[in-house]
Design a protein that fits this description.
This protein has 551 residues and is of the alpha/beta class. It has 22 helices and 15 strands. The chain binds adenosine monophosphate. Adenosine monophosphate (AMP) binds next to helix 3.
Length: 551
């Protein structure tokens, strides 16, 4: 048995192929073009032909490498090709992932990729924990592809709601190492007994733990192994790192000015170091008509998932996240006996992908190097460009220097951080407004905002639905709180009066003639995001202008 092990290394690549060279169906190529993907990522370039050849493969790569499409594209292609000769509608592809959130993410990718052939290739995600019987009719329709968690799949298999023995052609197991840390070992083994004796198997995993090696032996036959040894971050040509010296009192004013003057374009994640700061910043920006959503480790998994999907779908252009370390696998599940394992289908942050992020802003500088890498790594994914801009107060400088030292070694370069030139005195008007706005967000306002969020979660909670049906007055009392504004909004603050715009920017922005539109855009940036995300990706997502570049 020969094992074909390939180390993928971008530097050794001569010239990347384009998608057309992979001989894909036109409908797939059109969908890929619609997504704005110009060329395959390294893992896609290697994996797609091998999967199309029918080989079993093990993909060792993390989220961000484009691995979802690496297995989804050939799966769809194979189904389209088979449909030319086989007319019988059957379940051909099974994608198993460890959490509902990941299933939803995979399902979304498959949906995007089948946008031009949705009648021919149908996909369903049956990971949501609704009534098993409610999902049965969906399975009876014999979708071509099912995306599901192992636990849920086993329930359906045992209930006889789905039969795979005579139809399944491709099994894909994603984030295999997480499946084991989530204690899914038995379910996976049980699921295998319901599958045909021969099928093509693809295993994707970030690491090759002993468990994954066992699974590899169990399901892969003579596999090709694709190892993507990734650098921790995209190269500086793809991911630009900026710093901006700003003391605590000025950070809010600078952020407000950068956003309102559209010096930051495209989708943005703003990182802070604590949960309270998340709410403080949200309430601060809210006063200026800048809508944001929030992500922090204290939110239940479903809310975090919703925040990410609202950001990804373009409902919000800006997400404020508290320290990334807290977001990493917040419901850590270590052993099978671990008492903390409550809902193993949920709560995995790893693998969850923020899409089309043009900028990461460290409003608070991260507390260690790993945190910097995690945060900055949320942009410049796949082949996209990105910017990481860090606000650095004097007390944060030592950590910034440490990060730079380490990353310089990694990148083997002379310097990493470019200085973002910004003259605060030119945005005095913003500073003045920001000072009041920041002060208005008192500790009580922050506390109330957090309480409001919890109430909202209670209302949203699926499990409480029936309780509220029986007790509508309780729901009413919770709803009344919804109107609570924890900081008084002053409508005039949403506009940017001409006199506060720095003279250096007035000409460039055509202020006067285009000012009204400029303000309107800022106020409705959420609504325009869906359209703008592709534009933002297509155009240079870097911070577009710098104030006072003229000396
Ligand atoms: P994944 O590793 O599958 O989670 O994908 C990471 C990100 O890369 C996702 O946001 C994809 O939309 C994006 N992506 C995947 N393939 C490509 C590609 N060929 N070109 C540009 N972006 C891509």
């Amino acid at each position: 048995m020969s094992i074909n092990e390939m180390e993928l290394d971008e530097e050794n690549e001569v010239k990347p192929k384009n998608f057309h060279e992979l001989e894909l169906d036109d409908r797939l190529l059109k969908a890929i073009a619609k997504l704005g993907w110009i060329e395959p990522t390294l893992i896609q370039e290697k994996a797609i032909p091998l999967i199309l050849e029918g080989k079993d493969i093990l993909i060792r790569a993390r989220t961000g490498s484009g691995k979802t499409a690496a297995f989804a594209i050939p799966l769809i292609q194979k189904i389209l090709v088979n449909k030319r000769t086989q007319k019988k509608q059957q379940i051909k592809g099974l994608i198993v992932a460890p959490s509902k959130e990941l299933c939803k993410q995979i399902y979304d990718v498959v949906m995007f990729l089948t946008i031009k052939c949705y009648r021919e290739v149908r996909v369903i995600d049956i990971s949501p924990q609704t009534d098993l019987n409610a999902q049965k009719p969906l399975l009876n329709e014999m979708p071509d592809i099912i995306v599901v968690t192992p636990g849920r799949l086993l329930q359906h298999l045992k209930a006889g709601n789905v039969m795979l023995k005579h139809s399944l052609e491709t099994l894909i197991i994603d984030e295999a190492d997480l499946l084991f840390s989530f204690g899914y070992e038995n379910e996976i083994k049980a699921v295998l007994t319901y599958l045909p004796t021969a099928y093509q198997a693809i295993l994707a995993s970030a690491t090759l733990s002993e468990d994954v090696k066992d699974l590899k032996k169990l399901i892969l036959h003579n596999p090709a192994i694709l190892k993507l040894e990734e650098p921790p971050l995209a190269p500086p040509t793809q991911l630009a790192h900026y710093t901006l010296a700003a003391e605590e009192t000025d950070k809010a004013a600078i952020l407000y000015a950068l956003l309102k003057l559209h010096l930051i374009r495209g989708k943005t994640i703003i990182f802070v170091n604590t949960v309270d700061r998340c709410y403080k910043l949200k309430l601060f920006l809210e006063q200026f008509g800048i809508p944001t959503c929030i992500l922090n480790s204290e939110l239940p998994a479903t809310s975090r998932c919703r925040a990410v999907s609202q950001f990804n779908s373009g409902t919000y252009d800006i997400i404020i996240a508290s320290d990334e370390k807290a977001l990493e696998e917040p419901h850590v599940i270590k052993t099978k006996k671990d008492k903390r394992r409550k809902d193993k289908e949920s709560g995995v942050a790893r693998g969850i992908d923020f899409q089309f992020v043009s900028n990461v802003i460290n409003f608070d500088f991260p507390l260690d190097i790993n945190s910097y890498i995690h945060r900055a790594g949320r942009t410049a994914r796949g082949k996209n460009q990105g910017t990481a801009l860090s606000f650095v107060a004097i007390r944060e400088r030592p950590m910034m220097e440490k990060v730079e030292e380490q990353l310089k070694c990694t990148y083997n370069c002379e310097s990493l951080f470019k200085t973002y030139l910004f003259k605060l005195e030119e945005v005095e008007g913003f500073r003045y407004r920001a000072k009041d706005g920041w002060k208005a967000v008192t500790r009580i306002a922050v506390r109330e905002a957090r309480l409001k969020e919890i109430r909202q979660e209670v209302i949203n909670c699926e499990k409480l639905k029936s309780y509220f049906e029986d007790n509508p007055r309780d729901l009413q009392s919770l709803r009344q709180d919804k109107a609570l504004h924890t900081v008084k909004l002053q409508p005039h603050l949403k506009d940017v009066p001409e006199y506060i715009v720095p003279p250096t920017l007035k000409g460039i922005m055509g202020i006067g003639k285009r000012k009204r539109k400029f303000d309107r855009d800022a106020a409705s940036s959420g609504a325009t995001a869906v359209k703008s995300r592709h534009q933002a990706r297509a155009s240079n997502p870097l911070i577009s202008l710098q104030i006072s570049t003229k000396k």
